[in-house]
Amino acid sequence: MNAVVVGAEIEVTYIEPTQNADSSPIQDLDHTSIYADGGSGANKMLDVPASSPNGGGAVIQRISVPVSDGQEADVSIWATAFDGSGNESAQGTIVTIRIDKLAPAPPV
After folding, report:
1. Contact 71, 102 (CB under 8 A)
2. What is the DSSP letter of 23?
3. Read out DSSP for 33-48?
4. 29 secondary structure, DSSP code
5. Nearest by Cα to 16 from 84, 96, 76, 79
6. Beta strands of the chain (E only): which ranges?
7. pLDDT per residue over 97-106, tens digit each?
8. Bridge partners for 84 per DSSP
9. Domain ranges across the chain
10. Contact at 8 Å (CB) between 12 and 34?
11. Which pLDDT does position 1 carry in this prediction?
C-alpha cells in the first residue's frame, strides 16, 4: 500500500489480494475497504468493488480526511478485503501520512 497527499485528498494505491488467509486462491473477492484513523478511531472511508472474483487488480482511489485549516495530523490508512460471504480479512499494511494545514511562523 502507498498513500500520497494530493491537494486536499490522499491518493491510496494497493493491489487486491489473490489468496485467502489459508493461502488458497481467492475465488469470491467482493470488495476492499479503505480505512483511516487520524487519532480519534478508525473510520471506513470507501468501499471499492473487486476488479474480479480472483482479485489481483490495482486499486487507485482518493479519499478526503477532514483536517481543519491551522492544524496538522498524522493519519494511518489501511485496507481490508471482503469475500462474497461477508468475511473480512485482517488489516493490510498500515501507512501513516501527515496532513499539514498548519502555516509556519513568520520570519523574524
Report:
1. yes
2. S
3. EEEEESSS--EEEEEE
4. E
5. 79
6. 2-6, 9-15, 29-37, 43-49, 58-63, 72-83, 95-100
7. 988 888 889 9
8. none
9. 2-100
10. yes
11. 86
Task: Find, among 3, 28, 25, the residue nearest to 14 by Cα.
Answer: 3
With pLDDT > 70 as the criterion, what percentage of the chain qualifies? 98
| CB 94 within 8 Å of CB 74 | no
d(CA 50, CA 17): 10
Q: What is the pLDDT of residues 58-82, one digit of tens each?
A: 999 999 888 777 888 899 999 999 9
Which position has the grid cell 481543519? Answer: 68
The yes or no reply on domain 2-100 and CATH 2.60.40.10 is yes
β-bridge pairing 2-6 and 58-63: unpaired
pLDDT tens per residue, range 22-42: 999 999 999 999 999 988 899
